[in-house]
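[recover] target loaded
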């Protein structure tokens, strides 16, 4: 199977979700966010959701078994025919190994692993102010990106906004710890395969997108 397959890696609050949404439109491929899938399961109170909820609220990682099950189902979706951007997966070595197996089974090849690199000090401030549209999911920020008309979503006109339960300072610190301990060790693995491209995530959203597009070409 041909197509474009990208992994977006980076710390919580580093802008992976924002960039994945933009790249989804640019390459016409699906954004597969395990965080979004888990939040949907929590909201729907499914068995997976009930198991994941407390772990997510504490900022730790949900078990590899659960995450692999939901992502492997999702990869078979029709919208994945042209490829996908993985946003927030893999996050452990076991998940990376399983991903390799899944990709091979579906005759897909990984094009690039993009690391959006942001210093820890910036992340807490970024995360603490973020919120999103309850209807279309567009992301906003109290300081950096308010809707053009206060209280109204720029994209769908909805007036309902939500904040994530795990976007508070205490949970952010443990999410960061999980990132450094369990996820960052995957970066050298992808570097050794020649797939890793490092992007400065401290720049503006537009500049980060532009740099990712440039990195996709080399
Ligand atoms: P995110 O939206 O990517 O920041 O993920 C939110 C939370 O969902 C994380 O803090 C984890 O608890 C859980 N989660 C999301 N993706 C994964 C994954 N690949 N492996 C384990 N836990 C995950």
């Amino acid at each position: 199977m041909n197509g474009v397959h990208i992994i977006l890696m980076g710390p919580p609050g580093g802008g992976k979700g924002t960039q994945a949404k933009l790249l989804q439109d640019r390459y016409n491929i699906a954004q597969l966010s395990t965080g979004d899938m888990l939040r949907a399961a929590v909201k729907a109170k499914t068995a997976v959701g009930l198991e994941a909820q407390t772990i997510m609220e504490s900022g730790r990682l949900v078990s590899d078994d659960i995450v692999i099950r939901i992502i492997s189902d999702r990869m078979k979706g029709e919208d994945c025919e042209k490829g996908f951007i993985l946003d927030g997966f893999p996050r452990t070595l076991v998940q990376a190994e399983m991903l390799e197996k899944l990709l091979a089974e579906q005759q897909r090849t990984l094009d690039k692993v993009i690391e959006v690199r942001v210093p820890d000090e910036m992340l807490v401030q970024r995360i603490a102010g973020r919120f999103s549209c309850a209807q279309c999911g567009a992301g906003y920020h109290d300081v950096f990106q308010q809707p053009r008309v206060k209280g109204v979503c720029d994209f769908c006109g909805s007036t309902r906004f939500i904040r994530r339960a795990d976007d508070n300072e205490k949970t952010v610190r443990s999410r960061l710890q999980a990132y450094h301990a369990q996820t960052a060790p995957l970066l050298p693995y992808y570097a050794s395969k020649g797939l890793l491209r490092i992007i400065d995530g401290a720049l503006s959203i537009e500049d980060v997108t532009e740099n990712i597009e440039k990195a996709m070409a080399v």
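[recover] notes: Strands lie at 4-9, 30-33, 83-87, 112-117, 130-133, 139-141, 161-162, 196-200.
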